[in-house]
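Chapter summary example: a protein plus flavin-adenine dinucleotide.
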Amino acid sequence: MIETPASTTEGADAAALRERARLTFDLDVDICIVGAGLAGLTVALEATRMGASVAVLEGRHVGWNASGNQLGTVMPGYGLPLGDLIERVGFEDARELWSLSKAGADYVRATATEAAMPGISLSEGALEVSNVDAGDQLISRLQMLLEDFATEVEGWQIDRVRTELKTDRYFHGIYYPKAFQIDGRKYVHGLAALARRAGARIFEDTPVVSIDSSGIRKRIVTPSARLRASHIVLAGNVHLGAPLRRLSETLLPVWRYAGVTAPLGDRLAEVVGFKGSVSDTDGIDHFRVVDGGRLMWASPEITWAGRPRRFAGAIARRIRTIFPKLGRIEITDTFGGAIGQTVHGMPQIGQLRKGLWVTSGFGRQGLNTSAMAGQLIARSILWGDERWRLFTPFELVWAGGPAGRAAVLVVGLWNRGSSAAAGALARHRERVRIREGLREARLAEANRQAGTRPAVARRPPPGRPRPVRPPQPRPAQASQPPQSVEPPPPIPAGQDEGEGA
Ligand SMILES: Cc1cc2nc3c(=O)[nH]c(=O)nc-3n(C[C@H](O)[C@H](O)[C@H](O)COP(=O)(O)OP(=O)(O)OC[C@H]3O[C@@H](n4cnc5c(N)ncnc54)[C@H](O)[C@@H]3O)c2cc1C
């Protein structure tokens, strides 16, 4: 079984929220759920609200892994980019899947109220920034989100992004005004409290060691008790292990760690004006301001587990790289967990055999997707809702065991390396453009003062705004022939890079 040290700073409030009850007696229920993370608890809450008797069996404690150690950003969509989703299932099904993902975010918003979960600290807005200068791609994505996928978004130009985030690392951005963030740890414990209140029984320190799902009444074995249930829901993510090892092997475990800085005072407001979550399109940076003056920042994904504290230095270095003006950073809290990544990038939601369900593989975007999955599965079991079938194109694909993990490490490093290279190239191009712009302005000014005009007007490379020229004074000598203002032929792609560098 894969072990994950989850948090170095599990708060006293989280500890207080737990009432650890181990299952020590045999039990008969309608639905037995394996795993008390976001996925299992949402099924539990919804199914009990619909009148089912529910037992949740959790090997450690509520929110032990990723669910209790995440950044709390709630956005529409999946880990799989929208374009890939359309390619995979076609436009119409992609639209339905997307709207389910939005419904998942709405569910979290409706559930995470201050009244139901005191201190949940909901705040609005998320910004997705690009590491490269990709304005054209941004426009087509914006159009698609707005017009075809009914998602409220705004496109932010580079200047706007950099007014809010003082760094030259990020270029354009997509702003999601309806996205939001919550205290992720409070949310998972709040879900458990709501489920208990609705009548679900949650047993902690109760690992499921085997299941027999062949009969109508299925059997579940734990170290000190047995259960019988009509339905079993597997929500154990990468740690499921013995009950259905083949299912665990369809997930690639990747770990993500995060840190929270000591209060940064006024210097934080000078560099980060944006109040919501920020993530980059390459999935490397993900951060937000918390507690009025600290930064909460997630590391990139890695393929091994470590103590969260070990990653504090790397997180601090990354923050300084993006925001050098912040100076020295101290990381006071660290936490993290294992994320279950599927080969196709979409979650595993559905019925494996009659009465045996899976809700897993939510990757780095688990809040809205696990909420949606919880509703779908509870409704399928109790009301016969068949919409989970939209996920059937995303089959259970063996993730390759240790060889798969090695491959994901190489691909991850390669992607990170190529995204860093693309970012560096984009920033280099931008420096060249700025230098060129300054040179042109100086030339124009010199010409203006000398009363001359430049010999040849330069055409800006494609996609670059044409410089606005100051009005040219009339030539001093009437006999001077008119100069050509026609631009020269376009500079072939790539050749403009070296110029002026
Ligand atoms: C650092 C970090 C930041 C993140 N930030 C965000 C974010 O901002 N927004 C977002 O949407 N997502 C985020 N995520 C992703 C999100 O946290 C996950 O997708 C989500 O929590 C997965 O939930 P889960 O219930 O499937 O799995 P888990 O949280 O792994 O829960 C599974 C539970 O099942 C239990 N279990 C497993 N096997 C057994 C067994 N045999 N018997 C009994 N119990 C068992 C485990 O002990 C565990 O508690 C983040 C993740 C990390 C690590």
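Key point: Residues 1-122+182-251+342-399 form a domain with the FAD/NAD(P)-binding domain fold (CATH 3.50.50.60).
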